[in-house]
Design brief:
11 helices; alpha/beta; homodimer; six-stranded antiparallel β-sheet; 455 residues; 28 strands; nine-stranded mixed β-sheet
Chain lengths: 455, 455
């Protein structure tokens, strides 16, 4: 069996914690593990890691790799050069499996942003689906609704036979579905044989089918090939059209963490129904969600309100309007605000940096270099850099000369000076960097080969 | 005539914009001028600046002086070494007037945190009060209520004769006062002859009266003398007891900017009744006040809510609960949080600094040194400092040796190294300072005399 984790989404409705370059599947929502880490572990209980494929966007590759860590070292990460919805992502994984093995494997597709509470029941449902899969069906997993949710898709199913799919309904329709008892929430989890999906794709979506034939799967997918893919969901491309669809009821507790309201719903609450995370000081609020990532947030008398504080943006929203956060995100994108795109902390293969302050002509970062890591040999045409070591030791090569810096020591890197920062020591290295210059851009970087010829 | 501006308050109900060390009278609430600047200008229309006395706390002296600027260059600032409410502050001003002139002057006392819209009507009311003042009365100014405010004191006045004072009433009482029509809001503005106040103080508050006799007024008041003063308001010390009280109705538009709700009330609103200041992105909020001082604040569907964003703290509060901000402030004070005390920008005689980032073992400041200014010669026992010049030129004296730094250049100041920072040039100097050390405290400073013997 193969597992496919769909991890390409942007999670715009969970802005400002979720960003275009750091989406919700990578975030810890007051939990020990991120959503993608939990999803990987759940699959890894019954699928070996080398059979687990995470499909994500090139932009998130480094972050996904870092988060899967040692447990996922042998797992596969397929990076789409451009996001094209679920049908191309699933087709890509299936192509990878075909290239890898000659068996007609069973494939379980799981979104990376679901919270599933009971792993045993989950595995039981997978087991129940197996017989349909063997009979050549694509199995979709449905959840019995317990309230009239308007944010999900619904599946109509009578006596195990799927009658049809409906997109997010309006309030009245959702109420009707809840009454009628043969409607289920669409979990976004699917299971099928490789041969079944290939057949159904060929029949109902020949466009994807023929494109995928020409793509050679590797960890980086060529942009020119993949960009031709239609932007289409697997529901629309196959599920709503195919005659070979079965549904199995998913018994385990299941939550789509798609909005701040749903994050609120799954969080433990105090006696006034509040969820407070971080440095929050409250007087008499009720049924509210307040998340502070760094600053003090003081709240008085709020009701059914969501406040999310991050380094560079604050959201204040009525709890029943959290679906509309997506529109704020889209507006910011249109305005090229940047606040929807990056968090101030950016993860790199060698560690991470956080932009802690910006102003006219300068930028200050806290740079964290993991043990044994180093940054590329580089120079900048428009800025000077000044580094002060906070903890650990830094080896700096500046214009060919080595400098070893201990905490409290600093070094100036002039404009155009060739330099590299290394941490060959036993302890993580933290430095403060001040960039100074009229043009401060991540693009102002000239990279050089190191002595081993690597860039 | 003398004018006295009471400018010692802390404005805790306007936290987090107002801080213990940067209180509301110093703040621009989306206006060109701060409250103390507007108050000074209003008095200066009919009182020469050398007859205007600002009574403030030692902590705010530098800020008040800076804000009064050129127009207030000849005006008097009396700095209380400890805050003791309005009676000692007024007594202090009167003592200063007695020491300065032999005439029995008329004194107009005005709080620094009132918004008065119509200066002509204000001056007319002052004029109307003059006859009572001449007859030996202390005149208090009352405002006809137009709604049942519970946050103000009330004056009962029938046929120009004051019947009594009431502290902040409950809702029901405030409603009754509004109906009965002989109740007025107490504006906190007073007018009297020096001789009248001295007489009434001697009669009703001999404690202040005898203490004030021994205090020699200068710009710095001795702590030992002033600390003996009772912490008592002028209303309680004199107004509520004296038989010589008259009331004049203040005709001009008048607002006590004592809470975020009142700031909201006086601000121009959009068609949905919202007030947005700074970088705010809203969807469908109503009757709300959103103030962003730096970060993006995105709001969705809020109603009657106040959001105030500052560098280090965020307030989110139901509009009718803004009186309770004071309790948040008091809690922070008890917790020694620090967030109630300083803003991250601190003004000094030589310029200002802003704490732009703090972390374990380090602190980063942007330091702005005005043209021709310098900081004291100093050293630190527990931290090293690293300075990078952003703009202007810096003269640094480090262990007796001069260093001239232009933009982009830096210098390390070791632990215990004796150093001073100077800007003897024609342009303001901006540097980034990184402090590094296990103990980072403003108190870790040893000051030395400079070559002229000044500390």
């Amino acid at each position: 069996m193969f597992g496919v984790i769909l991890a390409g989404g942007s999670g715009s409705r969970l802005w400002p914690l979720s960003r275009e370059l750091y989406p919700k599947q990578l975030i810890n929502f007051n939990t020990e593990k991120s959503l993608i880490q939990s999803t990987f572990e759940r699959l890894n209980k019954f699928i070996p890691s080398e059979n687990i494929i995470s499909v994500t966007n090139t932009k998130h590759h480094a972050n996904v790799k870092m988060q899967l860590g040692q447990a996922g070292e042998n797992s596969i990460i397929l990076s789409e050069p451009v996001s094209k919805n679920t049908a191309p992502a699933i087709a890509l994984s299936v192509k990878y499996i075909i290239e890898t093995t000659e068996d007609d494997e069973t494939v379980l597709v799981v979104p990376s942003d679901l919270l599933i509470e009971n792993d045993e029941k989950f595995i039981q449902s997978i087991h129940d689906a197996q017989k349909y899969v063997e009979d050549g069906y694509i199995v979709t997993f449905g959840i019995k609704p317990n309230y009239p949710e308007t944010g999900f898709g619904y599946i109509r199913c009578i006596d195990g036979k799927v009658q049809g799919f409906t997109e997010k309904p309006d309030n009245q329709t959702a109420e009707k579905y809840l009454q009628e008892k043969d409607y289920y929430w669409n979990s976004g989890i699917f299971m099928f044989k490789v041969s079944t999906l290939i057949e159904e794709l060929e029949h109902y979506c020949p466009e994807i089918s023929s494109l995928i034939r020409n793509i050679k799967c590797s960890e980086s997918i060529p942009f020119n090939e993949f960009d031709k893919m239609p932007n289409i969901s697997i529901d629309y491309a196959v599920m709503e059209k195919s005659q070979k669809i079965a549904m199995v009821e998913l018994q385990s507790d299941w939550k789509d963490l798609g909005s701040w309201q749903s994050i609120y719903e799954v969080s433990p609450k105090d006696e006034n129904g509040n969820v407070f995370v971080g440095h929050v000081l409250d007087k008499s609020s009720k049924n509210s969600f307040v998340y502070s990532s760094s600053k003090l947030v003081a709240t008085i008398g709020l009701e059914d309100t969501v406040i999310v504080e991050t380094e560079d943006a604050i959201l204040a929203c009525k709890k029943d309007k959290t679906q509309e956060v997506k529109q704020i995100y889209e507006t910011l994108k249109e305005q090229q605000d940047g606040t929807q795109m990056v968090h101030k902390t950016v993860y790199r293969p060698w560690g991470f940096y956080t932009v802690i302050a910006e102003g006219k002509g300068f930028q200050t970062k806290l740079i964290h270099v993991n043990v044994g890591q180093k940054l590329s040999v580089q120079s900048h045409n428009h800025r000077s850099e000044h580094w002060v070591v906070l903890s650990g030791m830094a080896k700096v090569v500046l214009e060919g000369k080595d400098h070893i810096l201990s905490p409290g020591h600093s070094i100036d890197i002039g404009v155009k000076a060739i330099h590299s920062l290394q941490n060959p020591y036993e302890q993580d290295l933290e430095i403060i960097e001040i960039q100074k210059g009229d043009i401060l851009s991540e693009d102002d970087i000239v990279r050089y080969e190191d002595i081993y010829g690597r860039v």
